Amino acid sequence: MFSLQPRVQGASLFRIVYVAVATTLVTLHYSLLVLGRAACGRLGREQVDRYTREWSGLLLRLVRMRLSVHGTVPTFSDGRRYMILCNHSSHYDIPASFAALPGSIRMLAKKELYRIPVLGRAMRAAEFPSVDRHNGQRARDDLERARAMMESGIVLWAAPEGTRSPDGRLLPFKKGCFRLALDTDAVIIPVAIRGIHRVLPARTFDLNLGQPVDLLVGQPIDAAAFHERGLDALIGEVRERMQNLLEPAAPAKVEAPAKEPLALS
């Protein structure tokens, strides 16, 4: 049957190089914009929010991603502390989340990212918190700073798996972000991104263009309700919700598609 939908296709070597170079240049451009505004004392959260969404939209267009959003998307405007916990199976999880979700979202990042020239300085200026997972005291200090950011209205995005899944299946969860959620009585928004691992499978250069990707937003989880039940119960609840979102056989867990489609073109 003839279809007007764009076809998924493996990228040629030329296209892979083009996407890599363009991604680097786009990231450098927005990093320099952030640093330039910060140097002039004119960098506000609204500008950072706009830059991260523009950057994300450009990266998704480079790979022709067909991103659909499903579920009830929070506005993050009620004054509560929020964390977005998302499965992690692609470098594109982050731009997909930034493009799809509202609010002042900042990624809870690994310390290693801040060693990248220009990008690391721009992330610090843009209030992206980091966690040094190899130093216990430093990690606790980092999480305290992340908590202060949440208190001021930033929505933290974190991948509890800590590393990319090669096949889209959930890996074991690390506990750091869940401790932060309990300490701050945060509202956790579970997010599952289905099909994104095929765009650029982990630890490969097998880029696939035109890949359909579904970002599914689950029902909120109030971490404050888990003080008595404990950390493991909270981890188990989030994992179960995320797994239900990832399973195609469980559509009842997902609300109607978001009313406003993403403007990626």
From TrEMBL:
Signal peptide residue numbers: none
Entry's transmembrane regions: 12-35
Associated pathway: Lipid metabolism
Domain Phospholipid/glycerol acyltransferase: 82-196
A GO molecular-function annotation: 1-acylglycerol-3-phosphate O-acyltransferase activity
Any GO BP: phosphatidic acid biosynthetic process
Protein name: Phospholipid/glycerol acyltransferase
Pfam family, one: Acyltransferase
Organism expressing this protein natively: Pseudomonas knackmussii (strain DSM 6978 / CCUG 54928 / LMG 23759 / B13)
Keywords: Acyltransferase, Membrane, Transferase, Transmembrane, Transmembrane helix
